[in-house]
Specification:
The chain is an alpha/beta fold. It is built from 26 helices and 17 strands. This is AIPR family protein. InterPro entries: AIPR_C.
């Protein structure tokens, strides 16, 4: 049977594009779907699609869509600093991309727009440019503007050279805060593989200039000059188009590679780079194989498993110092380069080969131990998520996508190998954690507004997985399945972006909270246990029962529709905090961390819930009450 790493790229691309081309969209919509799917999978869980700004169309200034990524807002290291990044995306799907000339012409259009050389823009692009102008005026050293080309296939060598020329033009005119990334479907595919997508026998090979000596058959130890490490990272990005890919095996990749960097490291690199090796613990690179030459090592499939923050900080500081453009000589920069030439990073290179997964996991775990990474931070690498993936497949025929793009890979596998297990339903693990957090944990506002709290090491995630003593046992497969069913049937009620009913466009996470609030009230009156594990088990039974599901979800939908109707006594628009604290800003109000927490924060919602809880105990024409219908489903065998 084929496994996911044996899928040909063309099969993966065909499966990946199914969602993009479904329904025969217009050319504009096709390009938008393509870029949206590609950028969200590349960014993984650091953004919400509602935060995109769409500019595509006439006089868009070369920008199809844009988003501001403020990075993770939760980090254990309070000495860190997190830069903000504007991503400006050009969608080049199908015939929209015609080689190097497309990159140069369309890229220069964006650079002209950012440099104020294009005055006739549509209203959306004008609004974006006003925000970007304010951003540039107040930008810090870690803030960036990145132009992203979204293409179907990787760039050719000619196209990579054109991209390098365009990057030089951009940094000359806009400064070191400007950069360019090239993404393709292969970028996502490669993240799911350990070998190159183009030709399964061809491995990515990148040279590193370093002084390394053997220490046993599979280990090299030594030092790497700071400029050489920066050159290695540049070569890696030029080959892959995706620098973040080098951190795929690092646990902190799952906490956001665009995260916080250490102020002390930045300070040392800027002021005393020659001393960097004295203060830094070094880096560990795992490879499939290596070949030692005179003063250099060729690395096959390198991954940095320890040193993500170190190497990203080196990258950022060197990029700022050396990519500012200009043809003259800057004495200050030259003096800094002379000191940087003396700086080194201690390095270990470990060969793990084809069957080194367990060794890789151990290396990742122990080389990161000094950073106080907790056990649950390793879920995406080694632990529970993979276990739950197998359990959901066996028990519920549900495919759990652990990493964005995994479902497209699974579809390609199913299409090319009919003998493999054929899933028709799937869910993303991070999405289910947010459903659970909004519903079971009551964090609807946080779920609507942010992702980091729901990722490993996030505050809500830790509450979810570490509360076994008070939640009725350890979080597990039943909880995920209950969250999946709630997500599935909520979609059938038309919640989410583009919903026909205005009341349901921004209220999906609040709906999860309302469903659980009503359900826990029904259970407590039965009486029935209301710890999280018991609620999840009961919720599965109710949602799989037509009558029980309708009795619960219909009532919750009524609560939302009533709450979002102006003129009702218990309307959202009469909430004191909405009027006084948020100045009638609905979006900000719905992202409020205290949303629906207590009577004090949202008294109108609490009153509306109380009324509907009473209604659920009333019988109509001698029929069962909604409470009785729901409990009948809970108690069914």
């Amino acid at each position: 049977m084929k496994t996911s790493d044996e899928i040909a790229f063309e099969d993966y691309r065909a499966s990946w594009l199914e969602d993009v081309t479904k329904g025969g969209p217009s050319t504009v919509e096709l390009g938008r779907r393509f870029a949206l799917k590609l950028i969200t999978q590349w960014m993984e869980d650091s953004i919400e699609t509602d935060n995109f700004i769409y500019c595509d169309g006439s006089r868009d200034g070369g920008i199809d869509l844009a988003l501001l990524d403020t990075g993770p807002e939760e980090a254990a290291d309070e000495t860190g600093v997190s830069g903000h990044t504007w991503y400006l995306v050009q969608s080049k799907y199908g015939s929209a991309f015609a080689g190097p000339q497309t990159l140069l012409i369309e890229g220069q259009k964006v650079i002209d727009t950012l440099d104020g050389k294009r005055e006739r823009l549509n209203s959306l692009a004008e609004g974006l440019m006003e925000r970007l102008s304010n951003f540039k005026r107040g930008a810090g050293p870690a803030d960036k503007i990145v132009l992203v080309f979204a293409t179907e296939t990787p760039l050719s060598e000619d196209e990579k050279r054109a991209l390098a020329d365009l990057r030089s033009m951009g940094t000359t005119r806009l400064g070191p805060m400007f950069d360019i990334e090239a993404l393709s479907i292969e970028t996502i595919f490669a993240r799911l593989q350990e070998i190159e997508a183009v030709g399964l026998t061809k491995r990515l090979r990148v040279s590193l200039d370093a002084q390394m000596v053997p220490s046993g058959p599979d280990l090299l130890v030594g030092s790497v000059g700071l400029p050489n490490l920066y050159a290695f990272l540049k070569r890696y990005r030029n080959e892959t188009g995706d620098l973040d890919r080098i951190y795929e095996k690092n646990v902190r990749r799952f906490l956001g590679a665009r995260g916080k960097v250490n102020k002390a490291m930045q300070s040392t690199l800027r002021d005393a780079p020659e001393r960097f090796g004295l203060y830094n613990n070094g880096i560990t690179i795992v490879v499939h194989d290596y070949s030692v030459g005179e003063g250099s090592v060729e690395l096959a499939e390198p991954f940095i498993v320890n040193g993500c923050q170190t190497t990203r900080t080196i990258w950022d500081v060197f990029h700022t110092r050396l990519s500012s453009g200009g043809t003259g000589v800057n004495p200050e920069t030259e003096a800094w380069k002379a000191k940087a030439d003396q700086g080194v990073v201690v390095a270990k290179i470990v060969k793990v080969g084809n069957s080194g997964e367990s060794l890789l996991q151990a290396i990742t775990r122990y080389t990161n131990s000094q950073n106080a990474i907790r056990e649950k931070d390793f879920l995406a690498l080694t632990g529970d998520f993979k276990t739950w993936q197998g359990q959901l497949a066996d028990q519920h025929d549900l495919y759990l996508e652990i990493q964005r793009g995994g479902w497209d890979s699974q579809k390609a596998l199913q299409n090319t190998n009919p003998a493999t297990k054929q899933f028709t339903e799937h869910a993303n693990a991070a999405d289910l954690i947010k459903v659970y957090g909004a519903g079971w944990m009551g964090e609807a506002g946080l779920a609507f507004g942010k992702n980091p709290p729901f990722l490993p090491d996030g505050s809500v995630f830790k509450r979810i997985v570490n509360g076994a003593d008070v939640d009725g046992g350890a979080f597990g497969v039943t909880d995920l399945y209950a969250a999946y069913l709630l997500q599935k049937y909520t979609a059938q009620y038309g919640f989410g972006r583009g919903a026909p009913k205005q009341s349901r466009r921004q209220s999906r996470f609040l709906y999860f909270l309302v469903v659980l609030d009503l359900f826990k009230d029904v259970l407590s009156r039965a009486p029935h246990p209301t710890d999280h594990r018991s609620v999840a088990t009961a919720m599965v039974k109710v949602l799989k029962n037509d009558s029980g599901r309708s009795a619960l979800l219909d009532r919750a939908a009524e609560v939302i529709d009533s709450y979002f109707t102006q003129g009702n006594d218990d309307s959202l628009f009469n909430e004191p905090s909405y009027l006084n604290s948020f100045n009638a800003d609905l979006n900000a109000f719905l992202k409020w961390e205290k949303l629906a927490r207590s009577d004090a924060e949202t008294p109108r919602l609490k009153q509306l819930l109380a009324v509907n809880k009473s209604v659920m105990g009333m019988s109509l024409a001698g029929n069962q009450t909604p409470r009785q219908t729901i409990m009948a489903a809970v108690n069914a065998a």
